[in-house]
Design brief:
Length: 334
């Protein structure tokens, strides 16, 4: 019997926000794996803001997705056929599976996960790429010291919620910035942030003065734009700004808006440093050990926002840009 593989292809390069027309769904008959290849049934896909950047025909840390190619996505799935010595039928793997029912190809960069140790979606959140981003962005680049004030934007999202909690574990005062009262309540009541600022509902400058009376020592920036500009005005001497992302700018039709308050870096001898999580792949085991320990002790909470159905991918992706997700956005495929 021929098995059909539903695939979501990149049909056009979006200008501004992607829409359903950005993608095209096709059904392709599945082949058997060739030597060196594996066939994986996709179970969960990681829905990431970076996907927007991968659609642009521009130089970045990774090549863009080609027109007509399967949309790139990280995910977890189960090996259902294998011609690869390191992967047996039944193994669960984490890798770039793509927005499709089945991945067929060489498992480059894939690694095994164990659903007996943790629920599969956790391997895409705290124990996956976003958790690693929070861990290394905060600890390796931000280098927080106990007693410092740490501000995190996009704080109720996948990376932000974990970065803020790690800063708490390290003894910092943590202030999260998120959109809406519900997200802000979650930050203080569930994730243990010391304070939360609703950037959609209150004056950001006044709120930063209120919640950061001693200034800001470390800013973990997920959103860029006006929020970055506002936090720059509160920096302390030798403050660190971790440039993790700038989601407020990803759908811009005009040039990215840079910070106009950047001279605050000069005055305060502060620094702003970009980070890309893949630079830390060789250190993932160390981070996984810490994260698993904190999850087990209850010091760290991971929240996944799971949407079902491969066909919902275009609308599910857009939730990231409208703030429709709470915690790590995951698409359940099968
Ligand atoms: N450097 C790296 O290696 C790396 C790796 C992974 C992710 N990242 C970056 O980390 C950031 C967070 O990613 P994530 O996966 O954790 O996503 P996420 O925070 O779970 O979801 C995105 C959130 O961004 C907020 N947002 C959207 N538009 C905004 C705007 N115009 N202004 C302010 N906030 C806005 C929304 O929350 P609100 O409801 O609060 O607005 C939304 O829920 C992204 O910038 C991403 O590109 C970087």
């Amino acid at each position: 019997m021929t098995i059909l593989n539903r695939q979501c292809l990149l049909a056009q390069r979006p200008i501004g926000a992607p829409t359903r027309d950005t993608f095209r769904f096709v059904e392709t008959p599945l082949d058997e794996p060739a030597p060196g290849q594996i066939l994986v049934r996709v179970r969960y896909l990681s829905i990431d803001p970076a996907m927007r950047g991968w659609m642009n025909d521009a130089r970045s840390y990774i090549p863009p997705v080609g027109l007509g190619e399967v949309m790139r996505a990280l995910g977890v799935g189960q090996v259902v056929a294998s011609q690869h010595p390191d992967h047996a039928v039944g193994d669960w793997v984490n890798g770039a599976l793509g927005v499709q029912d089945y991945f067929l190809g060489e498992p480059r960069g894939f690694y095994k996960v164990d659903p007996g140790q943790a629920p599969l979606p956790l391997y895409l959140s705290a124990l996956g790429m976003t958790g690693m981003t929070a861990y290394f962005g905060l600890l390796a680049v931000g280098a927080p010291q106990a007693g410092e004030t740490v501000v995190v934007s996009g704080a109720a999202g996948a990376v932000g919620s974990v970065a803020g909690q790690i800063a708490r574990i390290k003894g910092c005062r943590v202030v999260g910035i998120a959109g809406g009262a519900d997200k802000c309540r979650l930050l203080t009541e569930d994730f243990g942030f010391d304070a939360a600022i609703d950037y959609k509902g209150e004056d950001l400058h006044a709120a930063l003065r209120r919640e950061c009376p001693k200034g800001v020592d470390l800013y973990f920036d997920n959103v860029g734009g006006d929020i970055l500009d506002a936090v720059l005005t509160r920096l302390n001497f030798k403050a660190r700004v971790v440039l993790c992302g700038a989601i407020s700018q990803y759908n811009n039709k005009e040039a990215v808006k840079g910070p106009s308050n950047y001279l605050s870096l000069l005055v305060n001898r502060a620094r702003m440093e970009g980070m890309v999580v893949t630079d830390y792949v060789s250190r993932y085991p160390e981070a996984m050990r810490d994260m698993a320990g904190w999850l087990q002790s209850g010091q760290l909470k991971s929240r996944e926002d799971i949407v079902e159905g491969l066909e919902t991918f275009p609308e599910t992706l857009m939730k990231l840009f409208t703030g429709g997700n709470l915690g790590k956005l995951v698409l359940k495929v099968s």
